Amino acid sequence: MASRNPSTSYSITILNRSSVSKSYAIFTHVPAITPTAQGLTSHAILVAKGVAPKSGTAYFSIPRESYFAVCGTSHQDEATKTHILDRRPVTLGAVETSVLRPGTTCVTQVVSDALSFALWDGPAGDRGEAGAFCIQTGLDFTYEEATTNNFILGLGLSTTGSAQVGLYASFIPTPRTTYQITPSKLFYIVPRQLSVNAPRNDEDFANACQVDFLVRSAHVKLAHNDNNVIEVVDDDSSSSILAPKL
């Protein structure tokens, strides 16, 4: 990824001190969404493959406060993959001097059987709660049409269609719904060879380890040893080992 100001990014550095080549994928915990989202899943945001044994290093940099609402069509099977996505930068709601500054609200539309965002109405129409942004759907599709046409809503990291950067999370939209979406600061390091944007699979997470940036410093260095343990070797917080989490 392009270099960023360290003060505006989280960084995860993984030292492969094991005796074999390793691959890693970074996921985030699914965002908190109200009302309940159908088919909610997280995706591999970034991946590193073939990290050399003993001396290899994988480095990931992730923006701390840069989020993008995502909508569109996503289809993937064993042979094919199609993603047609629309992205809009969003600001999370925040309380300033006891007054809520609402988070961005993005409104969807269906044009030629494809889901996209309508033009933003400006801050006057924003209704995101503290720590959240909104996506609002209309009555121009049904839930059955959303599933048939592979419609998705979600949370993204990148403004581009880069095949090197996956979504944080996605779900199937329902009509006439206003979703409050609160991103998570909890990330997972999965020591498996996966593709960017691969959906979470519980089997892949059997040896996953977590980094919670709500309680850790913004820059974490980890070491992966021959016992498949990932240990913090440079971090300001007190705990030294990231135990496997599901």
Approximately how much helix is present in the residues? under 10%
Low-confidence stretches: 237-246
Main beta sheet = 5 strands, mixed
From the N-terminal CA to the C-terminal CA, the straight-line distance is 27 Å
Mean pLDDT: 88
- Give the total of beta strands: 21
SS field, number of helical segments = 1
Instruction: Give the ordered list of helices and strands.
Output: EEEEEEEEEEEEEHEEEEEEEE
Using only CA atoms, what is the Rg?
19 Å
Strand content: over 45%
Described by the principal axes of the CA atoms, the overall outline is globular
The side-by-side strand order for the widest beta sheet comes to: 6-1-19-20-21
Number of structural units classed as domains? 1
What structural category do the secondary elements indicate? mainly beta
SSE order and pairing:
Elements: E1 9-16, E2 22-28, E3 32-34, E4 38-42, E5 46-51, E6 56-63, E7 67-76, E8 81-90, E9 94-96, E10 99-101, E11 105-111, E12 114-117, E13 133-136, H1 143-148, E14 151-156, E15 169-172, E16 178-182, E17 186-190, E18 209-212, E19 219-224, E20 230-234, E21 241-242
Parallel strand pairs: 1-19, 11-13
Antiparallel strand pairs: 1-6, 2-5, 2-17, 3-16, 4-15, 7-8, 7-14, 9-10, 11-12, 13-16, 14-15, 17-18, 19-20, 20-21
Q: How would you characterize this protein structure?
A:
This protein is mainly beta and 246 residues long. Helices cover 2% and strands 47% of the residues. The protein has one helix at 143-148; strands at 9-16, 22-28, 32-34, 38-42, 46-51, 56-63, 67-76, 81-90, 94-96, 99-101, 105-111, 114-117, 133-136, 151-156, 169-172, 178-182, 186-190, 209-212, 219-224, 230-234, 241-242. The strands form five sheets. A five-stranded mixed sheet has the order 6-1-19-20-21, with no helix packed on it. It has a five-stranded mixed sheet with strand order 3-16-13-11-12, with no helix packed on it. A five-stranded antiparallel sheet has the order 4-15-14-7-8. Strand 11 and strand 12 (114-117) form a beta hairpin. The longest helix is centred in the middle third of the chain and has 6 residues, at 143-148. The two termini are 27 Å apart. Residues 237-246 have low confidence and may be disordered.
